[in-house]
From TrEMBL, chain A:
Matching PANTHER family: OXIDOREDUCTASE WITH IRON-SULFUR SUBUNIT, OXIDOREDUCTASE, IRON-SULPHUR BINDING SUBUNIT-RELATED-RELATED
Protein name, as recorded: 2Fe-2S iron-sulfur cluster binding domain-containing protein
Superkingdom of the source species: Bacteria
2Fe-2S ferredoxin-type domain mapped to chain residues: 21-97
Span list, region Disordered: 1-20
Biased composition annotated in UniProt, kind: Polar residues: 1-10
Record GO terms (molecular function): 2 iron, 2 sulfur cluster binding; metal ion binding; oxidoreductase activity, acting on the aldehyde or oxo group of donors
Keywords of this entry: 2Fe-2S, Iron, Iron-sulfur, Metal-binding, Oxidoreductase
Keyword rRNA processing: no
CDD domains per record: fer2 (cd00207)
One Pfam family named in its UniProt record: Fer2
Coiled coil: none
Keyword set includes Oxidoreductase: yes
Automatic annotation (TrEMBL), chain B:
Top-rank lineage group of the source organism: Bacteria
Bias kind Basic and acidic residues: ranges: 141-155
Database matches in InterPro entries: Ald_Oxase/Xan_DH_a/b, Ald_Oxase/Xan_DH_a/b_sf, Ald_Oxase/xanthine_DH-like, AldOxase/xan_DH_MoCoBD1, AldOxase/xan_DH_MoCoBD2, AldOxase/xan_DH_Mopterin-bd_sf
MF (Gene Ontology): iron ion binding; oxidoreductase activity
The name this protein goes by in its record: Xanthine dehydrogenase family protein molybdopterin-binding subunit
PANTHER family xref list: DEHYDROGENASE, XANTHINE DEHYDROGENASE
Region listing for Disordered, in residue ranges: 141-167
Segments forming domain Aldehyde oxidase/xanthine dehydrogenase a/b hammerhead: 24-138
Organism: Hymenobacter gummosus
SUPFAM superfamilies per the UniProt record, alphabetical: CO dehydrogenase molybdoprotein N-domain-like (SSF54665), Molybdenum cofactor-binding domain (SSF56003)
Length: 190, 745
């Protein structure tokens, strides 16, 4: 028999951690001032402090993509950044893309193509798809498959996800080529 | 087009009625309910597999401002005494694990403490510095070392069928012209739904609890909690409106439920406990299973003898059982069969039903063995299966209530182009890629359980149907709305479905592919009963054209009640409600399986899967480039959601064949790849070319809806078809999953 101990904490760890401070985040066009510990992830800030639970926690380690949000139009894993680092940024969550009454084209396409089952990875998939379209890279099926592969779907709805993203990306790319070259070529996130 | 079909929804492909909630982040999962004054619990897990907790040094972390409590066996209050209080509806035989019960460590990552604090961040931090001393004892976690120690369980869980035999398998094998005997293995697999287990317990001022838990059965959780904590049902309402994937992981109450309720009751405060992805590997898995298959045929390829033995792990405290081998006595015609089964206890948590439990395991071994046998007998693998087609259930000696597997073979072969397949392995090449085609299939139970439902119609013609069934992605809200709308002739938009709440009529656990049959029939019966009440009200109206009509003489279509024989004789349903003066009309009813039919018939769904793989000869990498999955599962209620379930099953099969395995480091008795980066599941780039077809069966015997369930059957045969395709591509027979590239080099 042997004896092991875990986490024999050093004395300095036992001091009260850094106290919560004030953080102001601009989420879906609205300012939120929160009091939170500086090591609070953006994901936890959204879910536990702002009440925007559409952004999902699937692993908390940047491995599954369920927490994908758009920061200044770029898709990121919100579990891998701290809330305090995103002060001044434009954060768009699934709630900012559309509502049940006014669905975003990607949201409608996900419904039409049955691109989800349990729905838990879905907000992340949709935010990731919007990010992909913003990047202007969703030109072929293989490109969409590859560049949507940071978002795991355990229900295995990948066929529907591909078709939904393809449908919207094709429309967006067509619109982009009709308007002027060099513009962002995507609809706004509102 | 006739307007008559407007409210005929069953069998069509409407979009999910809960789709708008799910795609906008509006659907609420267990850890997302906003309750006031919430405290957060964080679970501390054991780093050792066996031993005792010597001391938990809680004092230090309790000194952190905002840390409320450290729950452990050292301070848990007196709870229920007997094992039976901890048994849930699907507990296997044995003695269930009790969280924080005593100092004994039974498995690695066992929860040993719950740290509760004012914020999640603080609870997590405090848990990370909590010092726990353990006495470590020697553990055993390797089933390979227990090959000769398997015993036949006598006290399996509900639904376990002891293996059977018929005639003399040894004699049949001796008389065979061709024989094979091989061992087939797969490692442990974990369900890994996207949503991690979590519970939000709302502690009301009167001390009552509303428990939002991740579960496939709210009633199962309620009876578990009320027995352990001595609460009345009124004091513990359990709710699950949406579940972020289950696949069996939520059949039994998991420890986040116990811990969050404990903390809420003790602290008299609302508490949320969510597990980490790592902790998702700590409460049940598809067991590591070793199987031996022996087959023999006559010169014509007719099976003469079959032996199938399976051995898998269980925990030290419960006898987990699943039906691994029984399917091998059912899928093909064979006069001489011996099926046997053993389990062996290890220092792990009890395994847990995972999508098509037993059958996914058994069909992999049987269907690879069938492929090997076909080659040994010199027959095309599909032709070999056709020659051994089972016309009846030989285990039960009863006819099938319906079985269109032969039609599925025809449909699948035609869609896939199977007739162009060269028999010899390594016959097709595209550059440095070897191309192979494989076939396999399976059989699954068409089950039904008792279920109840309630239907309420209001004066404005809106219908609400309610049952405590679950929605874990299968489409329960949608198919129940379809059934209700069609039964009462209402537009789908006029129907609201409520699920997942112990204040609603009782439904069985969401599992076994029985929800559509069980809850669907309950909803249908309830709506029919409501229809009879509405007919009576319609008959009271002045000059009602339905005055002398009996319930069977009328139909509900397009918002009307009308005579079947004279459809122009009708009344408008909303007029009936208006004239009646009733504000709402409510009806309860239920549904039960038909015991006579269950006795008389064998009720099963079947499928066949054709797969194409391309294998890089130099790198050993396998890509699944095409899959055709044809399913015969009775009537299909919703073409869209049913197809999605089978598409998902194919992804699961690809995963099982090529990626998925939880790897134990036996030195520590600990799963080492317990995260999404190292526990591999397919991503979008791994999936292409999947086709799903249904061969619909008219089955008047199975249940009033004629459905067999679709959540599990589609997974069967997928891993075997891919394994067989890899053989066809490379000439290498892999008998151990997953097929990593080193097995092909």
């Amino acid at each position: 028999m042997s004896i092991v101990s875990t986490s024999s904490a050093a004395d300095d760890q036992l001091r009260p951690p850094v106290p919560p401070g004030s953080v102001t985040l601009r989420i879906n066009g609205q300012e939120h001032t929160l009091r939170l510990a500086p090591w609070t992830s953006l994901l936890d800030a959204l879910r536990e402090y702002v009440g925007l639970t559409g952004t999902k926690k699937g692993c908390d380690h940047g491995q599954c993509g369920a927490c994908t949000v758009l920061v200044d139009g770029k898709r990121i894993n919100s579990c891998l950044t701290l809330a305090v680092l995103q002060e001044g940024a434009d954060i768009t969550t699934i709630e900012g893309l559309g509502t049940p009454e006014h669905l975003h084209p990607l949201q409608q396409a996900f419904i039409d193509h049955d691109a989800f089952q349990c729905g838990y990875c879905t907000p992340g998939q949709i935010c990731s798809a919007q990010g992909l379209i913003n990047e202007g890279k969703a030109h072929t099926e293989d490109e969409i498959r590859e560049l949507m592969s940071g978002n795991i779907c355990r229900c295995g709805a990948y066929v529907g996800i591909l078709n939904a993203v393809k449908e919207v990306a094709e429309k967006e790319l067509k619109m982009a080529s009709c308007t002027c070259y060099g513009s962002h070529g995507h609809s706004s996130n509102s | 087009m006739s307007t008559d079909s407007n409210t005929k929804y069953v069998g069509k492909a409407p979009n999910r009625v809960d789709g708008p909630l799910k795609v906008t982040g509006t659907a609420k999962y267990a850890a997302e309910f906003d309750v006031p004054d919430l405290a957060y619990g964080y679970v501390v897990s054991s780093p050792v597999a066996k031993g005792r907790i010597r001391k938990i040094h809680a004092d230090k972390v309790l000194g952190l401002p905002g840390v409320l409590h450290v729950f452990s066996h050292e301070n848990v209050p007196g709870l229920a005494w007997f094992d039976r209080s901890y048994k849930d509806d699907v507990a296997p035989g044995g003695s269930p694990f009790r969280p924080l019960h005593d100092d004994e460590i039974k498995f690695n990552m066992q929860p040993v403490a719950l740290v509760v604090a004012d914020t999640f961040e603080l609870a997590r931090y405090a848990a990370s510095i909590l010092e726990v001393e353990y006495e470590v004892e020697k553990h055993e976690t390797d089933i390979e070392s227990k090959r000769d120690e398997g015993y036949e369980p006598g006290r399996g869980k509900t639904g376990y069928m002891p293996p059977q035999r018929r005639e003399d398998a040894d004699k049949g094998l001796e008389q065979s012209a061709h024989r094979i005997r091989h061992e087939y293995i797969h490692g442990a697999q974990h369900h890994n739904p996207m949503e991690m287990f979590g519970a939000t317990v709302h502690y009301h001022p009167d001390g009552k609890l509303t428990i939002y838990d991740k579960t496939q059965g709210v009633y199962n959780c309620q009876q578990y909690i009320t027995k352990i904590f001595g609460l009345s049902k009124d004091e513990a309402r359990v709710v699950n409106l949406f579940m972020g994937g289950g696949f069996g992981s939520g059949l039994r109450p998991q420890y986040e439920l116990f811990l969050s309720v404990l903390a809420a009751l003790e602290l008299k405060r609302s508490v949320r406990v969510t597990l980490t992805r790592q902790q998702m590997f700590s409460f049940g898995h598809r067991p590591h299973t070793l199987q031996t298959l022996e087959l023999g045929t006559g010169p014509d390829g007719a099976l003469l003898g079959l032996k199938h033995y399976a051995l898998h792990e269980t925990s030290r405290f419960e006898d987990y059982t699943e039906n691994v081998v029984n399917w091998s006595g059912m899928l093909y015609k064979c006069p001489n069969v011996r099926l046997s089964y053993g389990i062996s206890p290890l220092d792990v948590y009890t395994p847990l039903d995972m999508r098509a439990p037993g059958a996914a395991t058994g069909s992999f071994a049987l269907e690879v063995a069938m492929d090997e046998m076909a080659y040994e007998a010199g027959l095309d693998p599909l032709e070999f299966r056709r020659r051994n087609y089972a016309e009846e259930d030989q285990n039960k000696k009863a006819p099938f209530s319906s079985k269109k597997l032969r039609e599925a073979y025809d449909e699948g072969a035609r869609r896939f182009g199977w007739d162009k397949r060269p028999m010899a392995p390594r016959a097709t090449r595209e550059g440095n890629l070897l191309v192979g085609w494989g076939v396999a299939g399976g059989v699954w139970d068409a089950s039904m359980q008792k279920a109840a439902a309630k239907a309420t119609i209001t004066a404005d013609g809106r219908l609400t149907v309610a049952s405590a069934a679950g929605e874990n992605g299968t489409g329960t809200y949608t198919i129940m709305a379809q059934i209700a709308a069609e039964t009462l002739g209402l537009p789908l938009e006029a129907v609201t479905v409520r699920l997942g709440d112990t204040t609603l009529p009782e439904a069985p656990l969401q599992g076994g592919s029985w929800t559509a049959a069980s809850v669907g029939t309950a909803v249908k019966n309830t709506c029919e009963a409501l229809g009879e009440k509405l007919l009576k009200l319609a008959q009271k109206m002045d000059d009602s054209p339905l005055k002398d009509a009996k319930p069977e003489d009328v139909e509900f279509v397009n918002g009307l009640i009308r005579l079947r024989k004279e459809p122009q004789q009708s009344v408008v349903l909303r007029d009936v409600l208006q004239v009646s003066g009733e504000r709402e009309i409510e009806v309860d009813s239920s549904a039960m399986p038909n015991p006579v039919n269950m006795q008389k018939y064998s009720m099963h769904s079947h499928n066949v899967v054709f797969a194409e793989v391309k294998v890089d000869e130099e790198l050993g990498t396998v890509h699944v480039t095409r899959v055709v999955n044809v399913v015969a599962a009775g009537r299909i209620l919703n073409q869209k959601t049913a197809r999605s379930q089978v598409l998902g099953s194919v992804v699961w099969g690809i995963s099982m064949a090529l990626m998925e395995e939880t790897v134990m480091d036996h030195r520590y008795g600990r799963y080492m790849n317990h995260n999404y980066a190292e526990y591999h599941v397919p991503t979008n780039a791994d999936v292409r070319g999947i086709e799903v077809y249904f061969v619909e069966e008219e089955d008047p015997h199975v249940n009033p809806l004629g459905v067999k369930g679709i959540g599990e059957v589609g997974l069967l045969g997928v891993a075997a078809a891919i394994t067989n395709a890899v053989y066809h591509a490379t000439g290498k027979r892999v008998r151990s999953l997953p097929i990593y590239l080193d097995k092909l080099l």
